[in-house]
């Protein structure tokens, strides 16, 4: 299920990732103090839930400082590397990790995804379906069509990666109440009004940089009520909803005040 009206906390990974997992919400978030402030992963870990952060991007931007963290940016940990290490490598050994847990589990997979400007490096050669595509990080050397095609190839690879995540969750559905939330940390400008990439000041940023995808998948054993949740998919919402959603899915009670936000999901057993 895809949500159509989600806004990001920021326009860059350095801001959006810590903000997404903050208890403060966008309006009160301070990136300078966030590394020393308890976040949602810290709260979940205190509730005796296994938390694991696997990263194939730059890093967790301080979010995973106090929980188990593994980088998949090199062949020592990531078995699927060619021109660069691939997101699907983060799934290596993940079933064995799950099998070794005796409590609930929260796993964060931080993708390289569609991060520019070198879009053509973000996917294996077999995902070169949209052509001609831009093969350089110097976007000024490419046509608009080539840039968009390269970006679309990254989306195709992300679709494949998410299908593998869902297959893993389906395998575990008989034992666990499985669910997946996929959300981008920021959007990307692909030449609209001659603007490219991301990172513009939020108040001036075009919609392309702050309008982000959010997808929810829930297994048959999950408490997520998919038919009722579909009624929320077109309601304007933001990254601020992620903190409350994580706590609710994991049934974690906390006295930490969270930023007020519309509900992102509805559960089968209770009214949200």
TrEMBL record:
The biological process GO terms on file are: lipopolysaccharide core region biosynthetic process
Q: Which Pfam families match?
A: Sulfatase
A molecular function GO annotation: phosphotransferase activity, phosphate group as acceptor
Superkingdom, natural source: Bacteria
Where it sits in the cell: the answer is:
Cell membrane
Q: Would you tell me the Gene Ontology cellular component terms?
A: plasma membrane
Q: Where is the Sulfatase N-terminal domain?
A: 2-250
Write out the entry's keywords from A to Z: Cell membrane, Membrane, Transferase, Transmembrane, Transmembrane helix
SUPFAM superfamilies recorded: Alkaline phosphatase-like
Q: How does the record classify its membrane topology?
A: Multi-pass membrane protein
Protein name from the UniProt record: Sulfatase N-terminal domain-containing protein
Organism, as annotated: Paraglaciecola polaris LMG 21857
Taxonomic lineage of the native organism: Bacteria, Pseudomonadati, Pseudomonadota, Gammaproteobacteria, Alteromonadales
């Amino acid at each position: 299920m895809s949500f159509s009206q989600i806004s990001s906390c920021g326009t860059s990974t350095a801001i959006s990732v810590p903000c997404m997992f903050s208890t403060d919400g966008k309006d009160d978030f301070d990136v300078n103090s966030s590394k020393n402030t308890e976040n949602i992963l810290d709260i979940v870990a205190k509730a005796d839930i296994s938390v694991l952060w696997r990263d194939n991007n730059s890093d967790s931007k301080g979010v995973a400082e106090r929980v188990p963290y593994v980088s998949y940016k090199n062949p020592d940990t990531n078995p699927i590397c060619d021109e660069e290490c691939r997101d699907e490598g983060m799934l290596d050994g993940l079933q064995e990790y799950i099998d070794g847990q005796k409590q609930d589990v929260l796993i964060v997979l931080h993708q390289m995804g569609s991060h520019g400007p070198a879009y053509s490096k973000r996917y294996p050669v077999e995902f070169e379906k949209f052509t001609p595509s831009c093969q350089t990080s110097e976007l000024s050397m490419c046509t608009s069509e080539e840039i968009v095609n390269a970006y679309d190839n990254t989306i195709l690879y992300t679709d494949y990666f998410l299908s593998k995540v869902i297959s893993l969750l389906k395998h575990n559905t008989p034992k666990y109440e499985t669910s997946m939330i996929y959300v981008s940390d920021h959007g990307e400008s692909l030449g609209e009004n001659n603007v490219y990439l991301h990172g513009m000041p939020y108040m001036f940023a075009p919609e392309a940089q702050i309008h982000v995808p959010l997808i929810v998948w829930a297994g048959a054993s999950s408490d997520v009520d998919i038919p009722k949740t579909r009624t929320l998919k077109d309601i304007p919402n933001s990254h601020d909803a992620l903190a409350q959603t994580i706590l609710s899915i994991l049934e974690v009670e906390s006295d930490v005040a969270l930023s007020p936000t519309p509900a992102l999901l509805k559960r089968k057993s209770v009214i949200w």
